[in-house]
Amino acid sequence: MHEASIAQSILDIAARHADGARGGRITSITVTVGALAAVEPECLRFAFEALARGTGAEHATLEIREDEGRGACRACGAEFAVTEFLPLCARCGSPEVHVSGGDALTVDSMEIEP
Amino acid sequence: MKIRIVQSILADNTRLAARTRELLGARRVLAVNMMSSPGAGKTTVLERTLPYLKERHGLSAGVIEGDVEGSEDGLRIERLGVPVVQLNTRGACHLDASMVAAALEDLPAEGLDLIVIENVGNLVCPAGFDLGEDLRVVVLSIPEGDDKPSKYPAIFKKADALLINKIDLAHHVRFQRERVHAVSRRLAPAVRIMELAAATGEGVAAFGDYLAQAAHAKKERR
Description:
Chain A is built from two helices and six strands; from the N terminus they run H-E-H-E-E-E-E-E. By secondary structure, chain A is of the alpha+beta class. Chain B has one domain: Rossmann fold (3-Layer(aba) Sandwich), CATH 3.40.50. Chain B has a seven-stranded parallel β-sheet with strand order 4-3-5-2-6-7-8, with helices on both faces. Chain B starts with a strand and ends with a helix. Strand 6 of chain A pairs antiparallel with strand 1 (about 1-10) of chain B.
């Protein structure tokens, strides 16, 4: 359940920015979670809701955007989007795929109302 | 009102890890993050490897022991005469950079050539947290099964070295080494795979030599 640590970090970052904007109620937080970041979106949502209670983000919705990785086939050279750690080439089926990216974990934006 | 943030969720952890990397870089001390499931044999591997490093290569290690509870592992390392700090995470499933930075203050600042951080036994959560290490070593013991790299790919993808431990039990369990080698290499093409049996000492020298080479390389780094 390292999603709890991730959720707490999201809340800390949001609180810091809300303070910078002179408080206000946070209504939504948008984050990007890479498909290969080893973070389970549903676990993250559960932890976020539990940890947000009693904070300025208590009623905030958590918008989770997925970030795909890139696969490059060593056999045929095809390039394609990947959401798995062990993909097969989308063109030739080879398992020899170099995978990069897809591990983003960022807080992108939030909405606050006075 | 919309506020644009665009900040890494793990920025605080990354910053503390960078500070640790800088501190140990200045001291030219190698940092190793050792990860595995509970019971794969991390502590036993250290009990065998650290004395070998001392006797064969003249290298002194310090250890940071991460466990949810208790000090059994810390005491096992202490019996070797190796400086050790026991960390208890009180339920947390992984170590993070702040815990390691604090523990480093309790290890001797001089006289160490390498620091081994034994992470909490868990094949999932430790993968995402940079601790400021130079090397990530994953230990997989054969009774766990040869399907672990495909089931827990994140941790194997980030491994610099993979130790396949308890090979002395190979006659008692079904375990296809080739499958582990192949899947690990697909995830991490440069991974160095070593097979050993920490309980008997078989293969420990190869791992010790690997660490010694990395520790020497760090000393010579400009």
